[in-house]
Design goal:
By secondary structure, the protein is an alpha+beta fold. The protein has one domain. Helix 1 crosses helix 3.
C-alpha cells in the first residue's frame, strides 16, 4: 500500500506533486514485489471505504481470482519476512 504524504479522502482531490509521487513509487516497488513473490502480475486497487484517505494498493496476482478472493491472514513473522524480501529487490 502506498499512501501520499498529504491526507485527502478522495484520490481525485490529491494535488500534484503528491499524486504523481504515489505512482512513481508504485513503478519502483511493483517490480520488487513481483520478484519477491514470483507472481505474474501486480494488480492495483484504489479503494476508499476502509479508511478516509487515498491509498494505492499493489496486489501480487496470478489470476483475476486472486483479486476476487478473500485475502489470507499472514502472521507478523511472515509479513516481516516478505517485507525484507521485497526490500532486497529494491
Amino acid at each position: 500500500m502506498i499512501v501520499p504524504k498529504i491526507e485527502l479522502d478522495y484520490f481525485v482531490d490529491v494535488p500534484e506533486p503528491y499524486y504523481s509521487a504515489v505512482f512513481a513509487a508504485a513503478k519502483k516497488i511493483a517490480p520488487a514485489i513481483q520478484k519477491a513473490t514470483g507472481c505474474t502480475r501486480i494488480s492495483t486497487l484504489i479503494m476508499g471505504f476502509d479508511v478516509p484517505h487515498f491509498h494505492y494498493h499493489l496486489v501480487p496476482t496470478n489470476t483475476i481470482a486472486d483479486i476476487r478472493s478473500t485475502p489470507q491472514q499472514a502472521t507478523q513473522e511472515a509479513l516481516k519476512s516478505m517485507h525484507q524480501k521485497i526490500i532486497s529487490f529494491l
